């Protein structure tokens, strides 16, 4: 199990959840909303489920951007350790 989540991890998980159907995750995606990136609420829920399973933390609230997701996961991981 990884201890720190990276933007690369977010890209991988989003692609896995939504099948990466033509949505580009290249470049700086950190502050783009998931909606702007082409991911609906169902894909975001699936993303948080995978994150919780892989990182062993609960994602509180509904992150709107990859940066918010990273912050929530890494803050929770720090609090656990």
Q: Which segments are poorly predicted (pLDDT under 50) over 5 or more consecutive residues?
A: none
Oligomer: single chain
Counting helices, strands and paired strands, the structural category is mainly alpha
Shape: globular
How much of the residues is beta strand, in percent? under 5%
For the CA atoms, what is the radius of gyration? 12 Å
Major sheet: none
Indicate the percent of residues in helices: 40-55%
Q: Could you state the order of secondary-structure elements as H and E?
A: HHH
| Span between termini | 13 Å
Q: What is the tally of helical segments?
A: 3
Number of strands: 0
Mean pLDDT: 83
Walkthrough of the structure:
With 81 residues, the protein is mainly α. The protein is built from three helices and no strands. It has helices at 7-18, 41-55, 66-80. α1 (7-18) crosses α2 (41-55). The chain is globular, with a radius of gyration of 12 Å. The relative contact order is 0.21.
Characteristic key phrases:
81 residues, mainly alpha, 3 helices, 52% helix, globular
Provide a compact summary of the structure:
This protein is mainly alpha-helical and 81 residues long. It is 52% helix and 0% strand.
List the helices and strands and how they pair.
Elements: H1 7-18, H2 41-55, H3 66-80
